[in-house]
Amino acid sequence: MAATAITTTTAVTQLSSRSKRSSTLNNSNNNKNNNNNKKDKSLSNGVNGDRQAMAGKKWCNDVDNGGGSFCWNASFIYWTLDDVVYVARYHWMPCVFAVGLLFFMAVEYTLRMVPASSPPFDLGFVATRSLHLVLESWPELNTLLAALNTVFVGMQTTYIVWVWLIEGRPRATISALFMFTCRGILGYSTQLPLPQGFLGSGADFPVGNVSFFLFFSGHVAGSVIASLDMRRMHRWEMAWLFDVLNVLQAIRLLGTRGHYTIDLAVGFGAGYLFDSLAGKYEKSKRIEALPHKEALIT
What we know:
Number of strands: 2
Helix content: over 70%
Pfam families: AtPDCT1_2 (PF24788)
Largest sheet: 2 strands, antiparallel
GO molecular function: diacylglycerol cholinephosphotransferase activity
Protein name: AtPDCT1/2 transmembrane domain-containing protein
Number of helices: 10
Shape: globular
Order of helices and strands: HEEHHHHHHHHH
Transmembrane segments: 90-111, 144-165, 172-190, 210-228
Radius of gyration: 38 Å
Strand content: under 5%
Keywords: Membrane, Transmembrane, Transmembrane helix
Distance between the termini: 97 Å
């Protein structure tokens, strides 16, 4: 019986050691397989990631110096004809600007520049040549239009001051102050020559033929500032009236050679720019005032 027990114990021990070796080998093989699978998955993910980066429109590379990274979109590389049609249809404005860029690059690099001894070329002067001849030959009409233009300038000035003093809305006034200060800096920095054929009038504003800055047009910018404020207050009829009068004012200024075309174009843009800056200024001051108001309440 003792021999039988010893034999049984020995057999069990051998079986146990064999099973342990077998399980160890199996675990080792499983680990190797798992590692191989992980490597395969990582390689697969890397390949898929590269494909998605190329097709998913975003690439990122590590920066050698600094340890950061930079990314860029390259989706246009994979555009099809349908994509091009889609962009041209739903994003037509940037496409028009792109064509304009190419066109004016060709114009700029092939255009003969105006010599220093010649007067500046102005397309607005060419377009209003007939009006200029009429005003030159009819001084009374020129004086009448100058007087009407002065009335219009008085209208926009009155409105801008009114909304501040009476209605308590200073944005238009702040915008006008920003605009005229910037106009003075730019006008003094680059003093353009008076256009040939300038038709001044004693009824014009500034009164008479006193000197004034050509760049940029304060007449046009002031009218835009007033019109934008009217639109904020839903005074649509007044805004449209000011816009129409502003266009007529610009045509008259070209006809009398009181401004270059670039003065008027920048005047329109300046009105929008300084109105936006005045709005940001007001917003910043309201944010600064919030803690003070909360302190007063508490």
